[in-house]
């Protein structure tokens, strides 16, 4: 069982990595791999990759059983396109991980629509992994890689 964690390429996200590293021993037989940027966190129980070229990044997503991501829209859409189960753990302004709480709002919007599971705390993250491992957290139906002709036509008409 493989869990791939991605935090984006712009800023460290040590809080998520620390939580994942602390939880990893609770899930024997589960391998955690995290794509990170250079931060101050040294992992003990998860494998850290500082940089992954785009083709290799896609391969990690394709081969993972579960994806955990910050609420970066590009990453979320790629995971949904590949029809993978996704736990979104947003960056928060209160922890100086981002300038505002737009990631929290993004996560809640996607959770409401049934596309992802959301987690904002270590306990919620633990619970979401448990739901996945017990078969109660599945991938949403795949989304298209491109906008539909109908949507493009509607936008064209609007403009």
UniProtKB/TrEMBL annotation:
Membrane-traversing stretches: none
Broad class of the protein's primary localization: endoplasmic reticulum
Keyword Protein biosynthesis: no
Keywords: Endoplasmic reticulum, Glycosyltransferase, Transferase
Domain of life: Bacteria
Gene3D superfamilies according to UniProt: Glycogen Phosphorylase B
Family: Belongs to the glycosyltransferase 28 family.
The protein's name in its UniProt record: Glycosyl transferase family 28 C-terminal domain-containing protein
Organism, as annotated: Flaviaesturariibacter amylovorans
